[in-house]
Design goal:
Elements: E1 13-17, E2 24-25, H1 27-42, H2 48-54, H3 59-65, H4 74-93, E3 100-101, H5 105-112, E4 116-121, H6 126-135, E5 144-146, H7 158-164, E6 172-176, H8 179-188, E7 191-195, H9 202-205, E8 213-215, H10 218-228
Helix pairs in contact: 1-2, 1-4, 4-6, 5-10
């Protein structure tokens, strides 16, 4: 899959977006996908209720909640990632879900792309990430992507290191809707914006994570970023 990547010679800053829950609305699709993945791996039916009870945005923590230890078993880790890729691909081919951009996201990307270099750092696999963002007409706004099958998963900062590791950290900010995004940014030593438009409770709940900024809507990010850089 090819697209015209956006490259700026002298950007004001470098903005790293999470995908699910930040760029696109997809929570029900994620729950369904986890149910299918875990049913395959555990060789038993894993209903939605069990997924909700065990849900974590941190993939390792999620696996641990199901009694799995992919951090100790490389073969299991590879099988989990491969199964997720297959499940996501089937969902896209069968058009099971109507993914959509959150309101104001496309406008935010358009405004930021004029002066800032944009990236995606996601727990979704690369194939489905590119498929969805291209289908929604926004893949071309981003210079680079790091997905769950590219490197160590969030909150480990490997994806950030690979994309923006050579850049002054004062010029980088991460935007995401989960603890893994905020912790990953902190681990890497860059600022973060808690994206609270997918879940209004996250505006208050994120206080414990100590993000540098909080945004109730995508348009709030523009003023935060322009005032920061």
């Amino acid at each position: 899959m090819m697209w015209a990547m956006s490259y700026l010679k002298n950007p004001r800053g470098h903005i790293v977006f999470d995908c699910d829950g930040t760029l696109i609305s997809s929570f029900e699709a994620i729950l369904e996908g986890i149910s299918e993945v875990m049913s395959t791996i555990l060789e038993r039916e894993v209903p939605r209720e069990e997924v909700v009870a065990n849900y974590e945005s941190d993939l390792l923590a999620l696996a641990h909640n199901f009694g799995l230890k992919p951090d100790e078993d490389l073969d299991l880790r590879k099988r989990l990632i491969k199964t997720w890729e297959e499940v996501a691909h089937r969902g896209n081919v069968e058009k099971r879900h109507q993914f959509r951009l959150f309101p104001e996201i496309k406008e935010l990307l358009l405004d930021l792309s004029k002066e800032y270099q944009l990236y995606v750092w996601t727990a979704r696999d690369r194939k489905s990430t590119l498929y969805i963002l291209k289908d929604l007409g926004v893949a071309s706004y981003f210079l680079d992507f790091r997905c769950v099958d590219d490197c160590d998963p969030k909150p480990l900062p490997a994806g950030l290191e690979e994309m923006v590791g050579d850049i002054d950290k004062d010029k980088v900010i991460v935007i995401g809707d989960s603890p893994t995004d905020i912790r990953g940014a902190q681990s890497f030593g860059v600022k973060s914006i808690a994206a609270c438009w997918a879940d209004e409770n996250f505006f208050k709940d994120s206080d414990r994570l100590e993000p540098d900024f909080k945004a109730k809507s995508p348009k709030d990010c523009l003023s935060i970023i322009n005032n920061l850089f």
